[in-house]
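Hi W.,

Here's what went into the run:
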Amino acid sequence: MSLLAPLGLFALLALPVIVILHMMRSRRRRTVVPSLLLWRQIPLRSAARRRRLRFTLLLWLHLLVAFLIGLALAQPHISFPWLGSNRTTAIIIDTSISMTLSEAGSSRLERVKERASALISQMRGADRVALISAGPVARLIDHGSSVEMARLLAALAQMNIEGVGSDFSGALTIAETLLLDQPNPQVIWLTDGALPPPNVTTLRVPLQIEVVGSPQPNRAVVTLAARSGQAGVVYVYARLANYGSQPFRGPVRLLVDGQLNQTELVNIRPGAVLELTWTLPGAARQVQLTMNGADGLPLDDSATVNVSGQHPIQVLLVADEAPALVRALQAMPEVTLRTVAPARYAPDPTVDLTIFVNTLPARWPAGGVLVINPPPDGLVPISGFRQAATTVTLTASGAALLGDINLGGINWGQIAMIEPLDGLTLLALSGDIPLILRGRIERSEIAIWNFDLNNSQLSGRLAFPLLVARTTRDLAPPPLPAVLPAGTPFAHQADIRTTLLELIDPTGKPSTFPLQPGLPMMLELNQVGIYQLREWADDQLVREAYLPVNAGAIDESDPTPRFASAVHHVPPIAVPAKPVDTPQPLWSWFIMAAITVLVGEWLYIQQRSQVEAQ
Amino acid sequence: MWFVTIFRRKLTSTEPPLFSEAFLRRLERLSLQTQRTLRGTPMVGSHPSRQQMPATIFTDHRPYVHGDDPRYLDWNAYARQDHLLVRLGEVEQEVAVSIIIDTSQSMVIGEPDRLRLAIQLAGAIGYLALAHGDRVMVLAGEPAMPVFGPVRGKSLTVALLRVLRSLGPGQQFDLAQAVRVVAQQQPQGGVVVVISDLLTPLPIEELTQYVPAPRWQVMMLHLISQAEIDPALRGPLELIDSETGERLEIDLTEEEATSYRRATQAWRAALAERCAARGIGYAAVMTSWPLERQIIPFLRTRRFLS
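Here's what came out:
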């Protein structure tokens, strides 16, 4: 028996204290007698004799309770040699979509969890187990020893399907990292084998692959794409796959914005892929394709996609007169332009981009802000004016945004010498004078063009509409992807004005996330269906969007195991021999024994009180 | 805690009645054995006295004086001696019986209850006295006061028993004060019956001072319980005096228990000796004895009853 906290033995100092207290405060049995007349006539013992320690049952019970509690505080552990075991096992569980396939009344994931539960329950002594999920992103779920078996089982019960694909390599890396230098390491991979065979030649720990499931037919929508074309039509492309030994003949239904648009009867040969296209007249925002696969994996029988196109941008132009800029903005189909004079400007929270020409607001409005030719004595510090050079130098940041726009050979005229401003970085310089700046201040995405459109030759060059379009789209909120595979990590870049992101999953359960300006939010979209995103700027709804998450994928939708159960042996790694320690905590037993003794003591006192009362 | 006693068996009172009519009828054949030296009212009671009065059955003669009843003249003696002599005979008298009951707290400690036996004894003695035409007075309480009498007449038996039944324990008992009250109430003397556990120092001098012989006859009934003689206590004890509340810590071993028994015997012997020296009748009665079958015969052997 070993003690984890030997200092707890100091509590045993209570034993002599109890003995002393019993000597000092020993309670005599009180008895009422008719008179003390006769008792006073017998010779009495001395006081020292009367204070002699009497080993009563109560004293023994007190000492026993104090001893048990003191021992429990020292956290004793005992090792049972017959329970000696010292294995470290990493259980990798495939949590890809194909594991939802039902076979013989239960899904593959349930069978795998049962097997993992059995493995955890078999832990003895110093065995350790790590639970690793091999979903789209591999991650460590939990790890612990045999004494933490209940927690491991609870974590296992919480595991669920995480999405499309299985990051087995990542899971194996986690397992290998955990198991290196551990005695008797072993990796057990529980999967349905519905993915390409892994390369385990470089693995340094033994691997046992256990494949559950058998070849099963499955029909799936593996690809669905839609884009808006010329004259307001929508082009839809779909790939349907038949992973089975029987041909599939059945209808597929095409829904546009939730309304049934077309139904088409398709024939798919066994093991073949069918490609379909549609050209839909009229605008559409969302397209859904469904089929009745009549298989054990219904999640991939349907797919939804947003029609990709231009994201509408609300632009407010604050200028007295800027005809070239207006023409360039109106040439962008996604831009809705509104113009106000600087004197009548008032901040509008619904505007995505505000353009100030030769003027500046009192404070930066939330959202995108483009300032052209900032005047002095405003939010932009200016130290003077100077003739700009015709040569334009792009910084590294500027090259990424403006690299393909020719800004050379332009006479920029007199330009302001802008002092460095916190939050803004240089994109382009004319000589050593900042020409184009870009940055973020509080909840504003800001770009500054440090030249006068009227005095420069830029507005007459081809680069001008390109620069306007590039800058406008850069300052506007980024669009959402048309579709995401389930479980794919998604870094959502919200509108700069957003303070709170509300995410409603396909089951209708909402979640909210406070946002920091400009920082992307990592979202885990594990459920198949349509997520709803709402971006709030305080109480103002800035943007509402729908994001489809599909289960169908070329690699994932074929549930046929591609490899069989196997054992991969590796040469044993010399690990320093460590004595097998199978600690079984005893403190709870000691506490229970102390409580039992206390109950017995209570009963004893009650009985004695009754006797005294009689 | 309320639930501690929920499984405890409830005790039912099965105490027999204090007095039974049959017992009293059987008791009527007995009488208090009083001394002739007592002074009572002659021609009323049934106790012998030393007073001689003219009687038909004579034991002595005295010269005739004017006014004597001529029916008691002994004409035969006049014929022989030529003197008028009056026949004198012994007359019976009634006496004043005062019963002092110790109602202190110590009388109700222990099993069986000493006070109950004291009330039974007082009832028996009081009934005997009333049945034989004596004047009866009962004193009890703290301080001791007459709770019954002094009265005479057998018809007052029910009232006597009712009074006795209503007696309850008090705190302490002062025998000297009780005797003083008796002496004041009955100046002509009589029988004083003290029923007590005598667990307070016996004021023997005050007894002989207030109720001296031969006018007074004192009978001391000492009630003793078995637990008092041989207590079943052992180990560390904190003894509490039932009357004074005083405490005494003691480790009662077999050795101490033997000393206690020895002290008890010495105490009883000293009481008997002191009473005998002062002419006080003393009878130690065990509380465990049955009243009719053991205590009454014992009192007869002790010449308390005849």
